[in-house]
Design goal:
Length: 129
Amino acid sequence: MEKVIIVFDGYCILCNKYVRWISKRNPSKNIYFTNFNSVFIKEKYPNLKLGNTVFVIKNNGEVLTKSQAIKYCIKYLKINLIFKYMLLTIPNFFLNFLYELIARNRYNIFGKYNECTIPNSIKSSNILY
C-alpha cells in the first residue's frame, strides 16, 4: 500500500477537522499527517510553505494540491460509495474554485488556533514530526 503524506495548516481549525475525518476513515492507515512547522517538512520539503492549500506527498515525491490532493486521499477512505464517486467525478476546475473560496476565508469562518497543532485523536504512528 502506498504511503501518502498530508501536509496541512496546523493553525486552521477546519484543516484539523479534515485530517481527523481522514484519519478515522483510513482503515489501511497508509495516510500520514504533518503540518508546515514540523521538522519533517523543514528537512525534507523546505520549499513547501503555508498557503491556501493542503499538500499531499505521494510515494514518488510528487506533490499534489487542492482538489487533486483531496481526490487522491479519497480513494483510500472507507466512505459512502455514492459520496466518493461524486467527489471523484466533479471536475477539478470546479472543485478548485470552491476550495479556493473556502481556503481564503477559512480563518474567518472556522477560526484559528494560537499554536500550530496536530489533532490528538490521530495515532502517533501516523504523525510525521
